[in-house]
């Protein structure tokens, strides 16, 4: 749905009037569609720097049995509603009621039920809902030519595009990756529509690729018009690599008193360190910032676990101070025209953020339970500064499947 935000494209399901209940199965399985495609490599992981996507998959799948946590794990179940329970819980700490749904194949029905929890961690990802910009004629074009326009979340393999006339839209990680994989498979040339240059772009496009400006109009005759007035006809496929939005359809704003996320401002409402949620001391959010991803999530998780277990070494500041952190950050990102949850590496922001989480977590006691936050050692920092997946103009040579640069000047974490 071009130009639409998550509340429109990913609305909550209607809850049954009383629970438990069974209903006819919904087609909405929130865990089914992954954005992973053939050839995708993952950055900054063990055996890296760039490993195939199944390496982190195996790591995650193995994590639960390795730590004996698989007995507590419930899968193939979606959270459809999260509501704060009034007047329940100790010391004014709210408990939560979750409404859950699972497809039961033996009766071919969805089963719904409620469960209560002392605390909730939202870890539902930040790349949930595809974003496609609004363009004149696009919605009608998609209806008239079903399947011709897709988002990178639906892209799987270049083999589906052999000798097809293709336009890739977007010039960030997905646009770069997918156009690189398609180049040579599709009809010559592969068209790439760029809104702005990326840091790996030179003055000329790579061989096999033709750059175009943004698309301004889809004609119902099938022709596609660009901002420079040029037109392409007989296009077989258009692949939008224009990013994602997070989505919180399960958050019950009525029962919880405020929305959890502002889609207009692109930020969690009331967050502290992108992790804790002001006034909701039994709620945490892991994985929202665009930063040194896995490492940051690990620090977030350890800090939250320590706070909730009462084993944190530095207390969380009072709500007023947390509010000041949020408003100071909002002022900063507005001034610098940046996104609230994008944390940059080169100006030291990542260091300060990770350090703050590390300080809250602290070190475990000699005889106590608790996990050590890993350190960001010299080797890791060197890799972040020097290893790239794609060459940049006038920058250094290829080196066994990755690029070695002297020192990245800007946006080292662009791929995360
Ligand atoms: C194409 C692509 C490539 C990427 N490559 C890299 C990379 O190389 N390095 C890197 O560090 N990061 C990369 N990222 C960023 C990546 O999103 C994160 O690193 C990582 O996957 C985030 O983990 P997560 O657990 O927070 O979210 P996700 O991996 O998105 O997992 C969230 C899970 O929650 C489930 N869920 C959502 N809603 C519900 C619900 N209501 N009920 C039940 N379950 C629900 C989803 O189905 C999903 O399984 C990439 C992202 C994309 C899109
Ligand atoms: N590990 C990997 O190899 C890998 C691969 C894919 C994705 N990822 C990760 O996944 C996340 C999402 O990346 P993404 O590339 O999908 O999205 P993204 O980083 O949000 O980039 C969106 C792109 O769409 C462009 N755009 C927006 N509107 C446009 C229009 N009307 N016409 C043409 N272009 C338009 C943007 O241009 P402007 O910048 O000019 O606005 C930008 O280039 C990132 O964190 C990324 O690091 C990682």
TrEMBL record:
Keywords: FAD, Flavoprotein, Monooxygenase, Oxidoreductase. It comes from Penicillium chermesinum. InterPro entries: FAD/NAD-bd_sf, Flavin_mOase-like, FMO-like. One of its GO terms (molecular function) is flavin adenine dinucleotide binding. PANTHER family: DIMETHYLANILINE MONOOXYGENASE (PTHR23023). Residues 1-28 are annotated as: Disordered. This is Dimethylaniline monooxygenase (N-oxide forming). Belongs to the FMO family. SUPFAM superfamilies: FAD/NAD(P)-binding domain.
